[in-house]
Design brief:
- The complex is a heterodimer of chains A (335) and B (345).
- With 335 residues, chain A is mainly alpha-helical.
- Chain A has one domain: MetI-like fold, CATH 1.10.3720.10.
- Chain A is built from 14 helices and no strands.
- In chain A, helix 9 runs antiparallel to helix 10 and helix 11 packs antiparallel against helix 14.
- Chain B has 345 residues and is an all-alpha fold.
- Chain B has one domain: MetI-like fold.
- Helix content of chain B is 65%, strand content 0%.
- In chain B, helix 2 packs across helix 14 and helix 8 packs across helix 9.
- Chain B is globular.
- The N and C termini of chain B lie far apart (73 Å).
- The chains are: A mainly alpha (335), B mainly alpha (345).
């Protein structure tokens, strides 16, 4: 931004003092926002600490049933042989991993194809339709995705994809219905798709035309040009998009609480096809479900500990997204 | 053929100027490439179909279950469908929360964006504030809600919410939920305000300085008015995000899809300090996962919510189109492209 001439002359008239005051008050507001955010990180950590300190690194490990552990905290009756703080989050972590990773992978493939379509192949009318469609998909609130999932997609999956014999085969372990891993993953991938399409499209648009023309002049066909030149140039942005979408998927609570099934069950891939129809419970959904117990001491600390894990992972992912975008600066193209 | 004949003869027909067909010719491509090309089209069409299906499904279900009485009746705690009322209060609650959230987030966001874009001194503070806003943008809203509830249940902030019979501050009220909501609107507003301010050409600033205006006056009288459409886009998008959030409402405003319950008797303050519900928490309450469990009401309320969000989206798109037309210096930067989706970074 251009420097103000008064600064350069160094005279301090009254107007300049007013100017300084404006700068300081705006700066103070920025400082307040910064302080609040630091306060947020710190308080969540402090509130979470008892849960971590009582369990040590085993907090992240497996052992016992999460639901039973949380119930004993709610009723403040420690189960035999354990302290009240006893908590093993692995089923929840596992639930987060097996919903987030497949959803992100699906969204990565689909969004890359969609971005290529938008920037390269789509005729103008198709583009005029598709751009608002992406914005619309991004704008639909997660509760509506969840409602469609639980009232439309889940009953359909329950009826058509899960056979009765499959339900009977696991009835003594877990009841399976339409609210399951597959439903959750499918809707989650749809929810993170718009961000990825948007970031990838902007990155593909930023690829210099001359690079693509150079490739085309060598007789390379259009698709190979896109594959070898455009997508390769946009790779950092696509990586950043993937990372940011992962952060969003991690934090999705409401939709997952609705469609991922009512139980904190660690779905087991060794169950074969049944695995895809087993209920899961990711971290954010668990916070949402247990939110009524926040004011209860031990249960509260445990919920804040789950929140702290989410906060740290989201921050690390933001950082990774920033790092992934750095190579783009070399080309002087911004995403 | 003599040279005279050659000259007399009409010129040989030249090949017509190559007209680029709008559709790609793929007949010469290898099979793999053609499959990839087909997949691109399939994904493009598929996305449109999915979006259309979502809107059409919600519209069909919503219109078939929505009754005018639902918009005017308050929800009643009853298990019987006939007696559980409508969702007038959740609609009011949604509007109230959005208003509170945006009234806080908009000025704060514009102020921070102005400082980040125009002053940025000291540099370390600017970097720190930028990273902090990135962190908030990436923070799941459940975690924001946890933090909000923790802060607002401190006893010295009791005036914002209510005290339980035991004397403990609940931290649950429209005011506290609105303040937490401003946290999810803020990154969007900061991002779009910064982007628009950065697009204002330097001549604009220099012309104002040449007229003897100070920097603060330049910002207030020249730069902010010139960027108002871009800022408005961010504000509208922020409203869309706030109105659609469920986690913060359930945790900071209380979960049930009930009536507005003012606290005390002061006209406006009692409403702000009171609890209630919004459309999002009402939909959750009426979904199979909630206690109300009524398809019809959930669909009808979700349809109303979707209409609100779509209206906000359409408004944002209009504003953004306008700001791309009048913002920035088009002559010098013809290739300036509007981002497809304003994301908070």
């Amino acid at each position: 931004m251009a420097a103000h001439p008064e600064r350069r002359r160094g005279t301090l008239s009254r107007a300049v003092w007013a100017d300084r005051r404006a700068e300081w008050s705006l700066g103070a507001l920025a400082l307040v926002v910064l302080a609040l955010i630091v306060l947020m990180v710190v308080t969540v950590m402090i509130k979470a600490w008892p849960s971590f300190s009582h369990n040590g690194l085993d907090w992240f490990g497996s052992g016992g049933n999460v639901e039973v552990q949380l119930r004993s905290m709610r009723e403040s009756v420690a189960s035999s042989g354990h302290s009240l703080y006893y908590f093993r989050a692995w089923p929840l972590l596992w639930g987060t991993l097996i919903t987030t990773i497949p959803a992100v992978l699906i969204a990565l493939v689909v969004s890359t194809l969609a971005a290529v379509f938008l920037t390269e192949f789509a005729p103008a009318p198709a583009r005029r339709v598709l751009e608002p469609v992406v914005r619309l998909l991004a704008g639909v609130p997660s509760i509506i995705y969840g409602l469609i999932g639980i009232l439309a997609l889940a009953p359909w999956i329950d009826e058509h994809l899960i056979s009765n014999s499959r339900k009977q085969s696991v009835i003594y372990v877990v009841q399976i219905n339409g609210n399951n891993l597959t439903t959750a993953t499918l809707i989650l991938s749809l929810m993170i798709l718009p961000i990825m399409v948007a970031i990838s499209t902007d990155a593909l648009n930023a690829v210099p035309v001359s690079w693509r023309e150079g490739s085309a002049a060598l007789g390379v066909n259009r698709w190979r040009t896109i594959w070898r030149v455009s997508l390769r140039t946009a790779r950092p942005a696509i990586a950043a998009a993937t990372v940011l979408a992962t952060a969003r998927a991690l934090g999705e609570a409401v939709m997952l609480a609705l469609v991922s099934g009512g139980r904190a069950f660690g779905a087991n891939p060794l169950d074969g096809l049944t695995f895809f129809f087993e209920p899961v419970r990711p971290l954010a959904a668990e916070i949402f479900q247990e939110s009524e117990g926040i004011s209860l001491g031990v249960l509260g600390h445990t919920i804040y500990a789950i929140g702290a894990v989410l906060l740290v992972s989201a921050t690390l992912l933001s950082l990774a997204g920033w790092a992934a975008k750095q190579p783009l600066n070399r080309y002087g193209s911004r995403s | 053929m003599t040279s005279a004949e050659l000259l007399a003869a009409p010129p040989p027909p030249t090949a017509p100027a190559p007209v680029r067909s709008t559709r790609e010719r793929t007949s010469s491509w290898p099979l793999v490439d053609r499959i990839a090309y087909a997949l691109c089209w399939a994904v493009g069409i598929g996305l449109c179909v999915i979006a259309l299906a979502i809107v059409a499904f919600m519209a069909v279900k919503g219109i078939s279950y929505l009754k005018a009485s639902m918009l005017t009746q308050s929800p009643q705690p009853s298990l019987l469908q006939k007696q559980s009322g409508g969702f007038r209060d959740p609609i009011l609650g949604s509007l109230l929360i959005t208003a509170i959230g945006i009234v806080i987030a908009a000025p704060l966001g514009v102020a921070v964006a102005t400082w980040l874009s125009e002053y940025r001194r000291p540099a370390w503070l600017a970097r720190a504030a930028e990273s902090a806003i990135e962190i908030v943008a990436g923070t799941p809203s459940v975690v924001l809600a946890l933090f909000g509830l923790l802060v607002f249940s401190q006893s010295f902030l009791g005036f914002l919410s209510q005290r339980a019979a035991t004397g403990a501050v609940t931290g649950e009220s429209f005011l506290t939920a609105g303040i937490v909501m401003s946290g999810i609107g803020l990154p969007l507003i900061v991002a779009s305000a910064r982007e628009t301010l950065a697009q204002q050409p330097n001549q604009l600033r220099e012309a104002s300085y040449a007229l003897g205006r100070t920097k603060a006056t330049t910002i207030r009288r020249v730069l902010l008015p010139a960027s108002r459409r871009g800022i408005a886009t961010g504000v509208v998008l922020g409203m869309g995000r706030i109105i659609g959030d469920t986690a913060i409402i359930t945790i900071v405003l209380g979960g049930a899809g009930g009536k507005l319950e003012p606290a005390g008797h002061t006209p406006i303050l009692s409403l702000l300090r009171g609890v209630g519900s919004t459309l999002t928490s009402y939909v959750y309450y009426q979904s199979p996962a909630g206690d109300g469990n009524s398809h019809e009401k959930a669909y009808a309320a979700a349809f109303v919510l979707l209409l609100m969000v779509l209206a906000l989206n359409a408004l944002a798109t209009r504003l953004a189109r306008g700001s791309a037309a009048d913002g920035g210096d088009r002559r010098r930067r013809p290739a300036l492209r509007r981002p497809l989706l304003r994301w908070s970074r």
